Amino acid sequence: MADLIRLLPDHVANQIAAGEVVQRPASVVKELLENSVDSGATRIIVVVKDAGRTLVQVTDDGHGMSPMDARACFERHATSKIREADDLSSLRTKGFRGEALASIAAIAHVELRTRETDQELGTRVVIEGSRVRTQEAMAGAAGTTIAVRNLFYNVPARRQFLKSDGVELKHVLEEFHRVALAHPEIAFQFVHNDHEEFHMPAGSERQRIVHLFGRKYDERLVPVEEHTEFLGVTGFVGKPEFAKRSRGEQYFFVNRRFIRSNYLDHAVRKAYDELVSRENYPSWFLFLDLDPAQIDINIHPTKTEIKFRDDRTVYAIVHAAVRRALGRFNIVPSLDFEPEPAILAAFSGQQAQAAPPRETVPAWRPQDLGAFSAPPRQSSEGWQQLFDVDSPAPTVAPELEGTPCIMPSREHEGMPGERPVFQLHGTYIMAQLRSGFMVVDQQRAHERILYERNLKLLEQGAGLSQTELFPRHVELNSGDLALVQDVLPELRSLGFDLELFGGHTVQVNGMPAEASDEDPTKLLEDLLEQLKNERGTLRQERHHILARSMARSTAIRPGRVLATAEMHDLIDRLFACAMPYTTPGGRPTLITYGLDELNQRFER
Predict the structure, then answer these.
(1) What is the pTM of this model?
(2) Does 406 or 193 have the greater pLDDT score?
(3) Phi and psi for 458 in degrees, rounded to 5?
(4) 207-346 CATH, one of 3.90.226.10, 3.30.56.10, 3.60.15.10, 3.30.230.10
């Protein structure tokens, strides 16, 4: 039998390795930026075209490379960071695997220009599909420029899996944000399609956050600073009142390297207990500094996941540091945590002043009825029949078969407008059933109504818009602005009258009719936050995500007091929906209780 196992050619092996390292243009941006940081650069310029499909170019003023290094850097596992396995336990640099440039050169056209600061001439190397086409001397500025063109030109299947330019640009900006946040001492410039998105001088961590996410963040940040012999924690967390309904800006950096950690997420969220509801997410920008020997970063190709040798102590210190920061600025009532013995000496136990009492939920206002002023809806005869004893029972969902029908008390017979309903705790609507009662969650019911209405508007492209008396301006970060541009036609279908005002500003000329009283900045931010995790590219998937996100952002909240007519209207609209029994996310909108259950409780 012939031998079956053979070594792969280098160019094929590099393409396979590229699948782990280079998943999209953002991966190229990440790897090139990290190399520039490691080169000792004080200024880095990123130029991107077509969200990175056509060009990703990174220029730095670092120490540059010799002619030999300029060629060797494209070989697999070629690195200047480690010499032996023990070096892995003391790494503080970014790239060290030596796979990035080899992987990128396997699936793109790459041009490298580099010159060492103490040399008169530099080196130019051109590589296409792992094959060196040119290596020559050249004159140029000190530092390094790497241009990556036509990504995945020789792997068309991979190129077809890329998303729209708006989505890919969002991922590119996320990687840029992570490196720029980790190194505020470096000046950064970012240009996309010949338009300068960022021009940030070197500065402090706070200044870098404001440059990236907007001036509004300056007043939202609470500084964090705690130091122990084991771990130092610095950075900023967001004030609780600015928490968002979906994940926003949450950044952890360990030794100036961005990481993801559900374990540390829980430590920070725990510090916000009783300050932020579970469905909301505060922002944080936290920098952890500890001995590299205490972590293992070599467990993932992109190095965004790490292991801590003593994760319990790291958890306790991060939680305590955030809790103390919130308490120091009079945000939490008291510091009720108890650090583990290993870190007791690091904290003084000082208590914070009590926080002011929370504001009460405002009562329902007449203008809030605009939320129910939708176009003519489907027939709600099913709901009307529930009140008519002599009418045949309406068709119900299979999962609700056997539930009793609604029956009015005798004094209301013949008067469907006076059906007996009442509100409980400003959250639930209760209605009498023929043999029991029904409880409707008013927020979930309204969410279902708005969701189906928004789907129709997106298909028809004819959303009603309430013109603003004076146009308002909303400042967005680059990622959010790219997302708005990507979904602008759909937003206009929902009733948003938006136009790009210049820079990172969007001008709001009109709002959806059902949200005319909403703050446009908050509504757009909430909507965009829920869209950030969008992965669908099909038109129907995008419409579903937009319709659901808009419904969640504009649905009435618990605590809104409804008049009887408003409760009737809400239930009418709910039963006119194609699927009235659940929210778009699958949660129940109503629950029924039978008389048998009540009789059992009263032991009848």
Answers:
(1) 0.64
(2) 193
(3) -65, -35
(4) 3.30.230.10
